[in-house]
Amino acid sequence: MSCEYAKERNLLKFSSFACFCFAALGVGIGLWAGSMAIVFDGAYSLVSLFLSLMALGATVYISNGTAKNGKSGQCVSAQKAAVIESLVVLIKGLAVSVVCVVSFASAFEAMFNGGREVNAGFALIFGVVNLVGCMLCYQFVKKNAGKQPSTILKAEASQWLMDTVISAAVLVGFIVAAGLMEAGMSEYAIYADPIMVILASVYFATVPVKMVGDSTKRLWSIYQQQDSVSGHRVLA
């Protein structure tokens, strides 16, 4: 058990550091280049950073509690760990949902306010670097999580998968914008950035909903088990 939690902690530490780097890079470059899509990518990484730190704190708490309780407390500790892990995943899902909704609203507003000009050439370089980096992080977390990862590591891998697809969507938007500008259709290129944000946020709406649904079902199942045990004790 302690070995599994140690591996989980190390993966979450790596994930937190990577999220910090991508968040700082995305928000900083996005504001400088005037790209809402890059800012959205960086904002998602920033949210992922706080969620990864929260997951890391939960893992440390669970592992310390298990070590202190010993064999006599393993059953209680396992149930408590399941509750904490489910709550972490639930909060992750809710936070990602908020990011998707806010990003969709901002992009939708930009569509009706003349679009947004972007430094497409510079943004293309950022898009490639960001996509490759997120993809490598996703593969690293997924591979090292094992064949039967914990719910926390599953959620962490899902975060990186979402970040990878967001980065891919942003890169496609920049390629389309650059192509339109080269074709002399700059008046249409300004809509590429907000359109990609809208598509990405709509696509990801299903992921946090699934996270929230699964964690809620698990919490309800744990509650029913506790209620059943309490009922048996009363009858006894």
TrEMBL record:
Residues 13-219 form the Cation efflux protein transmembrane domain. One of its GO terms (biological process) is zinc ion transport. SUPFAM superfamilies: Cation efflux protein transmembrane domain-like. One of its GO terms (molecular function) is monoatomic cation transmembrane transporter activity. Keywords: Membrane, Transmembrane, Transmembrane helix. Its main location: membrane. Coiled coil: none annotated. The chain crosses the membrane at residues 12-32, 44-62, 83-108, 120-141, 161-182, 188-209. InterPro entries: Cation_efflux_TM, Cation_efflux_TMD_sf. One of its GO terms (cellular component) is membrane. It is found in: Membrane. It is a multi-pass membrane protein. This is Cobalt-zinc-cadmium resistance protein. It comes from Enterovibrio norvegicus FF-454.
